[in-house]
């Protein structure tokens, strides 16, 4: 019986899980350790599972990892995040990403321009 996705998100989740299954068959020790580590990281602790999923979503967005973006958006919803909570986390990620760009622009880029122009003289 072949899987038929109802939308692109479901198709991506299925593709990821299928790939993970094949990888786990080929590398059971590594996959098992990785899965155990990941499960431990996402357990309820001082931070809630909900907070951990929001953090993971932000990191996924920042690193532009499409599978993780989908996976952790689902994780956020599964942990009871509202759309506004998710979008606020997206905003924080955008501020951080933009902050990294501007911090490099106001330091490294400006210093490089000055130093490279000095070499021309």
UniProtKB/TrEMBL annotation:
Species this chain originates from: Bacillus seohaeanensis
Domain of life of the native organism: Bacteria
Lineage: Bacteria, Bacillati, Bacillota, Bacilli, Bacillales
Residue span, Carboxymuconolactone decarboxylase-like domain: 28-111
Official protein name in the record: Carboxymuconolactone decarboxylase family protein
């Amino acid at each position: 019986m072949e899987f038929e996705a109802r939308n692109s998100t479901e198709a991506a989740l299925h593709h990821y899980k299928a790939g993970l299954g094949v990888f786990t068959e080929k590398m059971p020790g590594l996959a098992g350790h990785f899965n155990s580590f990941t499960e431990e990281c996402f357990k309820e602790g001082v931070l809630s599972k909900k907070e951990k999923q929001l953090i993971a979503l932000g990191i996924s967005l920042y690193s532009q990892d499409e599978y993780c973006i989908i996976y952790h958006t689902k994780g956020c919803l599964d942990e009871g995040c509202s759309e506004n909570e998710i979008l606020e986390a997206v905003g924080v990620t955008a501020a951080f990403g933009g902050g990294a760009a501007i911090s490099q622009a106001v330091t490294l880029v400006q210093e490089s321009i000055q130093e490279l122009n000095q070499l021309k003289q």
